[in-house]
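Support reply, case 0932

Customer input (verbatim):
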Amino acid sequence: MTLYVSDLDGTLLDRYGRLSDVTRAGLTGLLEQGLLFTVASARHVSSIRSILADLPLSLPVISGNGAYISEMGSGRHELVHAMEPALAQAIFALIRQHGLTPFFSTHSAKGERLFYDAAHNQGQQNFIDECKRNADPRLRQSSRLQDQLLDPVVTFVLIERDVPLQALQADIAALCGDAVETHLADDLYVPGWPWLTIHDCRATKDQAIKTLAERYQLAGREVVVFGDHVNDVSMLRAAHRGIAMENAIPAVKQEAHTIIGPHYEDSVLRFIDGDWRR
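Our regenerated output:
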């Protein structure tokens, strides 16, 4: 049997970041018949749980661009890839040198936290508002972010204009080399305020899919993945079949075996339904 793994935003979800009624009903029926399916998203598991709700997934979800493998029902993490403390502190110092302020998530025995100091633009405010809508329990405001770096950092998120984020991304590459993974991508829901995400080098979707398959005795199965953006490129390269959405960026389409319809036409469900039944 085939293992199907889908990105969420711009891929499985509609224009408003929701799972359509058609896709929800279709996936529910297929899952109940034995479909092997899960998602791999930049979102945290708390956000994934809010969106997918009662979808009967038997496999864990991949969240944080591969930083976590998480049980959706409980939110418990089976795997967490955090940065070394010295690396996180060096990245934070570089961010501040650029005059920017990050969001960052931490993970420790005390629990998970998502820190920020304030919203400095529309994109950042939208991110905070979405966390609150999803009742994200991690969210914490702090006027001294540097004091919160004592716990292991999983992800830095910068939401700004393109030019300052491009400059920061280049300097992070020069400072950290292949010790980190960075992605610079437009926000699908708030145009003009792209995101730069920074993770440990082990936190990628392709590595997480491989780990999940090994842990759940699925290593011999065909893997089919669906994606649309820069953080999906590595998993399309690693999959047996990579499926790009019609709305995908050119870099994703170049790696794809097949290009299907846009994300807002239930295209992932339609492909899986035909492919799995066949």
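We compared this against your earlier run and they match. Two observations from our side: The first helix runs from residue 8 to 12. The two ends are 11 Å apart (CA to CA). Please reopen the case if you see a mismatch on your end.
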